[in-house]
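Can anyone check this?
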Amino acid sequence: MNLAPSLHQHHLLYGYYEEREALCDQCNKHIYDRAFTCEICKFWLHAECALQQLPFKISHPSHSQHPLRLIYKDNHSCCNGCSGLSRNWLYRCQPCDFNLDLSCASSTTIPTQIDKKINHFCHHHTLTQFNYRKVSKYHPSCFWCVKLLSGVCYGCLQCDSLKLRIHESCLINMPTVITEHPFHSSHPLYIIASSESVRCFACTYYHKMIYSCKKCRFHLCVHCTNLKPSLKHELHQHHLTLFPILKSHRINEPCKKCDNIWIYLNPLDEIKFFYRCLECDSSFHFRCLIHESSAKHEYHRHELILTDFFVEDFSDQYYCDICEQERVPQHPVYCCKKCRFVAHIGCALTKVSSR
């Protein structure tokens, strides 16, 4: 038996980090480029310092029939030891498709593996169950509820960058029929797996998995089913809904306010969203409607600052402190830097009516 040495007592994240004041615990030089880090105790290790300690090949009791080789996988995988989400450096047996993360490769105490794969109507590939944990400095969200991943989750390991990831509870409770959706309340919407990409009426992207009205030519992608109108602006008669802009996004219609043709994204703008009115099928630049970088509200004594997103902690509950309704952690908000007061944009800019 030839185990890998333990790099650290806690799970390590791996990613690209710009030069910073932190020092590598191995060579005592500044951290730069690719590195391992522990968020619990601020441990840092250059990638090259870590690799100097790791043998290229090991034998492990959890897979005694073949040796495991150290490899780098840029896509996500599931550790066959702890069933945790893994990425980048790991030990692998290629013929058996067997993976061990660096922590499990250094230990003989291996928990019982979760080996569960299912087919689900939300995706065309098989979904794999895993225990979620951060594997890089980025914290992905569930594609259904848009909250940060936690606990037992499912994901498609065949798609690049784990584009399909979802909480187990969201997967179980995902409806096949949606009634009285605020975007289309007149008829029910039925889940359909289309062989060709269909344009979502809300976000205007094309998808193969959609909710569709059998009476109207109305289609809604899975993500947009969880959205609802959030802003009433004086420049428009209807309520507006906030949508993210993706790199591939092109809208050929002009912004209703400035009349400029919508192009993908201003790289200097940190707010990567736009507003749409689904009743008029019209769009607005975010900055054409929201000019205020700060706001004051009578429910709070401090100034509120416009922020591209605000994640309070690793809880899965995020609320607006004005309306006390749930908010999407990836959406821009107004927040107080002094006491962590957070509010929807529409709530922060709306004055409370006197009775």
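Reply from J.R.: I decoded it. Residues 2 and 179 are 58 Å apart (CA to CA).
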